[in-house]
Design a protein that fits this description.
The complex is a heterodimer of chains A (236) and B (524). With 236 residues, chain A is an alpha/beta fold. Chain A has helices at 40-48, 95-100, 108-121, 137-149, 167-183, 195-201, 219-223, 228-235; strands at 2-11, 14-24, 29-33, 55-60, 63-67, 70-71, 80-83, 155-159, 187-192, 204-209, 212-217. Classes of the chains: A alpha/beta (236), B mainly alpha (524). Chain A binds chain B through residues 45, 48, 50, 75-76, 78, 80-82, 84-88, 90-92, 101-102, 104, 147, 151, and chain B through 154, 156-157, 159-166, 169, 173-174, 177-178.
């Protein structure tokens, strides 16, 4: 379980998140929903340790990992996978090297086995020597997911990962993500501003505005909410 | 009816003028030398082992300078562009200053400094003197190139690696490979600049390949041997440029503002003291120390040396400023035509070669460009150019148009194509679009190109000393020729004045152009 307790975060003295309390259940896919600049991506970065909270604490599996401007557990030790909006595939490395990069402390033979296995799982076996710019949008998307999952993280954070894909591909990959959650027993936190996308895959939806949680619950609970902001947000 | 989207009159004027006035002399000089087979054969025999040993020495010296300057510049760039260190803008501005100071001014400062501290300048009158001055001049260039590459790495690229491994490993395996083109470019450009530089080795009386060419040309009047030696240097420079031609030709580091890439900043806590110490130490060595020495020496005879220096420099200031003003305006025009039409090269095929010609003239050593201009224009039919300031204007335009074209081109890339397209759809003509859209949006780039060209031209020496017409008085040449035999205090005072003039130019022009920048809301 991931817990955020009384989290506040400011950027350039501008408060982005104020006194936020949230928890994400193990094995569930939670969507953070909200318009641009509401602080949803910042929450992912706080969980990953890429930002530190100005005040408040972050717990992963009941272990304190960050508190009051201090990262207690290093970013690379949190066992977290992160899919960035722009995917952040390393352009100077092949598909194989991108996936293998995080496994450097393991034996070479084990690395090869693991990389080939996960690339095969995502149907990317024939692209192992391709550089990211030689791959299609969908293939790059799958490669980014493969790169994160090869480290067998317990938590997968996804920051609007499908925003650059066409509708057909988006649906295909959304299906993949659902399947992955069950197969790898993952806790997924998925950020989007598209409520239809959120409703299509989420076990739990958290609707945010200006750094605060407005409403949270299942898709049905959100759709049935009497809150004016929620009604307006999902109307369009 | 086909509506013409881009008119090519401006391109024809810019391209033809640059080709005829600046490129043709180089082609002419090299071809004339090589068509005279007898002289080529005789001179080839003169290219003996000592010539090649001298070339090798120059190569080693330049490689050493390029390596050290790139290393120090990269460290400074990392500290200033990639960490949360405070006052980074202040440090960046100060550390970039040596780039805008004529190399010989720094040479004077170091020589005077050694004289003050040790009572002798023997150590400096050697390769070490040249190395010290070159490193202090070219380190900021490396800092600029590497810093620009660092801020163009999206933070996500580094964040995604930080989730898996340590910072050290991320820097080694992700950041350094991604900035490799910038590191190589920095090395190559600094190598070319140092192997081509003439004033510093000449001031320290150190024999390098460029001083040898100059001696053959001006002391022995052995033009064909000088040109043959020049060709060796040109080939070396072109070979190096060819290795990284795409990156260097695009010169992404010559840009104003950035394209809005969100880049990663590393927080510094434990290393804070160490990093500040590095910055302050380099600032002290590269700026504070030379400047203090110049000031101290200038006042060593009370106000006498300063008054003398002002009297000596005064008659040259107006000439130098006039030359720099006219040349900089032409530089901006050539830079704009090259940049604009290169962005539309699908319409005018020749446009991309314009860019390469600018790079070619920029990269060949000044001494060679100077010899070519003398050779070409020293003919009865062209004596009007040879004996007037026109030859200097041609030289400056040839030398500095590449920088302007890159500054303008990189700004042009930041203007969305849709802005121009929206006007095209409304049937607004080419010149109207240029006047109302493109030119106002490029104003900051024009301003930067103009000021940078102006500063470089005012301080330029390598070309000016070779081609200045008889009777002409220009600041850099006057200072350089007088200070060879002047007392220490006087040469320091002259150098200090040139330095202060260079510093004063930027705010002066900014105040002049600010109303226009404000009009288009471009001043920030």
């Amino acid at each position: 379980m991931i817990q955020l307790k009384e989290i506040s975060f400011s950027y350039n003295d501008k408060p982005l998140i104020r006194g936020l309390n949230l928890q994400f259940e193990v094995g569930k896919l939670t969507c953070l929903l909200g318009s641009s600049g509401c602080g949803k991506s910042t929450i992912l970065r706080l969980i990953a340790g890429l930002e530190v909270p100005s005040t408040g604490a972050v717990y992963i599996d009941n272990k304190l990992v960050a508190k009051d401007r201090k990262n207690i557990t290093m970013v690379s030790k949190r066992s977290i996978g992160f899919i960035f909006q722009e995917l952040a595939l390393w352009p100077h490395m092949t598909a194989y090297q991108n996936v293998a990069f995080g496994l450097q402390e393991q034996k070479k033979t084990d690395v090869k086995e693991k990389v080939l296995e996960i690339l095969a799982f995502f149907g990317l076996s024939e692209y192992i020597d391709n550089y990211p710019n030689e791959m299609s949008g969908g293939q790059k998307q799958l490669l980014a997911i493969a790169r994160s999952l090869v480290l067998q993280p317990k938590v997968l954070l996804m920051d609007e990962p499908l925003s650059n894909l066409d509708v057909k591909l988006k649906h295909k990959i959304l299906g993949y993500i659902k399947k992955l959650k069950n197969e790898f027993d993952l806790t997924i936190v998925y950020v989007t501003h598209d409520h239809k996308e959120a409703f299509a895959i989420a076990d739990q939806v958290v609707l945010m505005n200006e750094g605060r949680v407005i409403e949270q619950g299942t898709t049905e609970e959100i759709v049935g909410s009497a809150n004016e902001f929620v009604k307006e947000f999902i109307e369009y | 009816m086909v509506r013409k989207l881009v008119h090519n009159e401006l391109f024809i004027i810019g391209f033809a003028a640059f080709f005829i006035f600046a490129v043709l002399p180089v082609i002419y000089t090299i071809s004339i030398t090589f068509f005279n087979f007898q002289s080529v054969w005789a001179n080839l025999q003169e290219l003996n082992i000592s010539t090649f040993l001298l070339l090798l020495k120059s190569i080693l010296l330049s490689a050493f300078v390029a390596f050290l300057a790139t290393t120090i510049g990269s460290v400074l760039a990392f500290v200033l562009y990639k960490t949360t260190i405070r006052y980074s803008s202040f440090f960046k501005i100060l550390l970039l200053l040596p780039l805008f100071i004529s190399p010989y001014i720094l040479a004077v400062a170091w020589k005077e400094g050694f004289f003050l501290m040790f009572g002798s300048t023997l150590v400096l009158a050697s390769y070490w003197g040249v190395i010290i001055v070159f490193i202090s001049i070219y380190t900021p260039l490396s800092m600029l190139i590497v810093g620009n590459a660092l801020v163009n790495i999206s933070s996500e690229i580094e964040d995604s690696a930080l989730l898996m491994t340590s910072k050290r490993h991320v820097v080694l395996k992700i950041v350094i490979p991604l900035i490799k083109p910038a590191l190589i470019t920095s090395f190559i450009l600094i190598f070319i600049f140092s192997i081509s530089e003439f004033s510093v080795p000449s001031y320290f009386a150190v024999k390098v390949f460029t001083t040898e060419i100059f001696t053959q040309f001006s002391a022995f009047y052995n033009y064909s041997l000088a040109i043959l030696q020049s060709v060796l240097l040109v080939l070396l420079c072109l070979f190096l440029l060819f290795a990284e031609r795409k990156y260097i030709a695009n010169a992404p580091f010559l840009a104003i503002g950035n394209k809005g890439v969100v880049f990663k900043l590393y927080t510094i806590e434990k290393q804070k003291v160490l990093l500040y110490s590095i910055l302050v130490l380099w600032l002290f060595v590269s700026i504070f120390l030379p400047l203090t020495i110049l000031v101290a020496q200038s006042f060593s005879g009370g106000a006498m040396y300063l008054v003398q220096a002002i009297n000596l420099i005064k008659p040259t200031i107006l000439n130098s400023f006039f030359l720099a003003f006219v040349s900089s305006i032409i530089v901006v025009f050539i830079g704009f035509t090259a940049a604009y039409y290169n962005s539309e090269h699908h319409l005018i095929k020749l446009a991309k070669y314009f860019d390469l010609l600018l790079l070619f003239i920029f990269a060949i050593p000044s001494i060679i460009f100077g010899i070519s201009l003398i050779f070409f224009y020293n003919q009865a039919a062209l004596s009007m150019i040879y004996t007037s300031y026109a030859i200097l204007i041609i030289a400056f335009v040839g030398k500095f148009s590449f920088i302007a074209s890159k500054l303008i081109s990189n700004s042009l890339k930041q203007i969305p194509v849709s802005l121009d397209e929206a006007a095209q759809i409304q049937s607004i003509g080419f010149y109207k679009r240029l006047q109302m859209l493109i030119l106002p949006l490029l104003l900051p780039a024009f301003f930067a190109s103009f000021v940078i060209s102006f500063i470089f031209i005012v301080g330029e020496l390598g070309l000016s000393i070779m081609i200045y017409p008889p009777g002409a008085e220009i600041m850099s040449v006057k200072v350089y020729t007088i200070m060879a035999n002047a007392p220490h205090g006087l040469s320091s005072a002259m150098s200090l004045i040139v330095f202060l003039i260079t510093l004063g130019i930027i705010p002066f022009f900014y105040l002049l152009v600010r109303p226009m920048l404000n009009k288009y809301h471009l001043s920030k």
